[in-house]
């Protein structure tokens, strides 16, 4: 992501954390709401307008730039993931804040009261996932393409408690299974395309980040790509003659 894109993304996060809307930004900039939406989608803010939005957020432009340039976590440690899995309500709050839920939205939707939610936020702050600010405002310290550890506690948790439900609940329009014989070169090319799909999902996540919770829906994308033969066919293979 370019520095300009990171800056605009940071502004969106700060607006959402403060409960501010594009309509309010439009009033400050003396523009229509549609014009403000175009500014954010095109990422073409003038310096003067960036300063106006910064003042609206009670931040200096230097503060915004510093927030945008701050290093972001791409993974947690094994111990951090284990701590999340050990407490399902902590894991729930972590997933919600990574997906830009506010505290009010968490306690309205889930059976988590305010004191417990705040305790979990404080623990996530100590773990380094977020910075917790006055008023229970949250600043994420994870990258938008943040991922759980390969083979780590979170992935194992999903594999054992959610993967079957995710796959079994998919309709024929949502679940594709393809099989073919690929060369090594074709296999490598397709893997690169799948990595691009992963980035496209992260970009779509970011583009939806400024919308209210009612305008966003939890969405899962699972891709498994490997050399494979159905066990029924494997059992019918002739024994390999190794004596030659």
Topology, element by element:
Blueprint: H1 3-17, H2 22-29, H3 33-42, H4 47-56, H5 61-69, H6 78-86, H7 88-98, H8 103-109, H9 114-127, E1 130-133, E2 137-140, H10 153-161, H11 163-168, H12 184-207, H13 231-234
Helix pairs in contact: 1-5, 2-3, 7-9
Question: Would you summarize the structure shown here?
Answer:
The chain has 244 residues and is mainly α. Helix content is 56%, strand content 3%.
Note the main attributes of this structure.
single chain; mainly alpha; 244 residues; two-stranded antiparallel ribbon; 56% helix
What can you see in these coordinates?
- This protein has helices at 3-17, 22-29, 33-42, 47-56, 61-69, 78-86, 88-98, 103-109, 114-127, 153-161, 163-168, 184-207, 231-234, and strands at 130-133, 137-140.
- It is mainly alpha-helical.
- It has a two-stranded antiparallel sheet with strand order 1-2.
- Strand 1 (130-133) and strand 2 (137-140) form a beta hairpin.
- Helix 2 (22-29) packs across helix 3 (33-42).
Terminal-residue CA separation: 56 Å
Gross geometry: globular
Order of helices and strands: HHHHHHHHHEEHHHH
What is the averaged pLDDT score?
86
Biggest sheet, spatial arrangement of strands = 1-2
Would you report the number of β strands? 2
Extract low-pLDDT stretches: none
- Beta-strand fraction estimate: under 5%
Query: Which structural class matches the secondary elements?
Result: mainly alpha
Rounded to the nearest angstrom, the radius of gyration is 22 Å
Number of helices: 13
Main sheet summary: 2 strands, antiparallel
Helix share of residues? 55-70%
């Amino acid at each position: 992501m370019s520095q300009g894109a990171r800056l605009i993304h940071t502004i969106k996060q700060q607006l959402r954390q403060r409960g501010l809307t594009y309509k309010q930004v439009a009033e400050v900039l003396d523009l229509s709401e549609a014009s403000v939406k175009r500014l954010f989608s095109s990422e073409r803010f003038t310096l003067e307008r960036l300063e106006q939005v910064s003042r609206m957020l009670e931040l200096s432009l230097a503060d915004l730039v510093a927030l945008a340039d701050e290093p972001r976590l791409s993974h947690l440690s094994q111990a951090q993931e284990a701590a999340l899995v050990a407490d399902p309500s902590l894991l729930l709050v972590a997933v919600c804040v990574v997906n830009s839920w506010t505290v009010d939205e968490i306690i309205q939707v889930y059976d988590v009261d305010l004191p417990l939610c705040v305790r979990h936020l404080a623990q996530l702050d100590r773990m380094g996932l977020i910075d917790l600010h006055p008023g229970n405002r949250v600043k994420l310290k994870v990258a938008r393409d943040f991922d759980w550890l390969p083979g780590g506690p979170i992935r194992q948790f999903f594999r054992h408690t959610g993967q079957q439900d995710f796959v079994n609940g998919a309709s024929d329009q949502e679940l594709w299974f393809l099989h073919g014989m690929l060369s090594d070169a074709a296999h490598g090319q397709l893997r690169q395309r799948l990595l691009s799909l992963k980035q496209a999902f992260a970009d779509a996540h970011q583009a939806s980040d400024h919308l209210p919770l009612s305008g966003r829906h939890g969405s899962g994308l699972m891709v498994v790509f490997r050399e494979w033969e159905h066990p029924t066919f494997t059992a019918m293979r002739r024994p390999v003659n190794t004596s030659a």
